Structure formats: C-alpha cells, structure tokens
Amino acid sequence: MRILASAAIIAALAALAACQSKPSAPAQQGGKSSALRNMEVVAKAAHRCWFASGDAAFRSYSFANELNSFTGRPRFLLVPRGNFGGRPLLVVQAEGNAGQVSAFGPMLDGPTGSRVAGDVDRWRRGDQSCG
C-alpha cells in the first residue's frame, strides 16, 4: 500500500511540475538590458571622443551620465558646463527590447548638430572611432 501511495504522490508532483509556466523571454546577458548595453557603448565613445580628447567643440558642455535609469531608458545628457541641473542641450537615450538609440535636443539644430548625429549613429552601429 505504501508503494502505491508513494507512486501516486510522485505522479502528482510530476504533473504539477509539468504545469509550471516557462520563462517568456531568455535571460538577458549579464543581467543588463539591450538598452543599457547599447548606451554603455555609445556613452563611453562620446565621453572619450568629445570630452577626454579635449575637443574644442564640446568645451562649453558637461557630460551628465544617467545610465542607471530605472525608467528603462538609460541615457546621457550634455548640459551647459558646470550646470548639471540645467536644461539638457542634448539627450542620447536607448529604449525598448532592441535597445534603439535616439538623440534629441536643441544642440542637434546648432553648428555641431550634424557631427553629433553622425557620431551617435556610428557608435550605435558599433564603430567606436572618433570620426
């Protein structure tokens, strides 16, 4: 009788295990979203090429890194130099499952706008050169 009861319990547990839902999406590499991975690449290139290099076109701006955003839109901002609370002149962010990178802000309409757009586009495609 014990063998029959044990077999019934094992069968019931096996049936319950079969009913468990499977994860709907594969686990993300390293726990990072696609948006965060893409923005890390773009932000590192922007900092290296525009700021660490001493590029004169970017001397009047500060780089405000907001990659640890809880909104699902990691981003970085360019703000007036030394004014991290100031209105952003450029926002570069990524969002969505594919981590689509976009840039917007008044800086894109200025003299460096086409260069900035070209740099961001090149970096989001994986080319890390400074142009």
From TrEMBL:
Q: Composition bias, kind Basic and acidic residues: at what positions?
A: 118-131
Tell me which positions the record assigns to the signal sequence: 1-17
PROSITE patterns, per the entry: PROKAR_LIPOPROTEIN
Sorted UniProt keywords: Signal
The source's superkingdom equals Bacteria
Q: Where is this region: Disordered?
A: 112-131
Q: What is the recorded name of this protein? A: Lipoprotein
Specify the species. Answer: Aquamicrobium zhengzhouense
Write the lineage as a comma-separated list: Bacteria, Pseudomonadati, Pseudomonadota, Alphaproteobacteria, Hyphomicrobiales
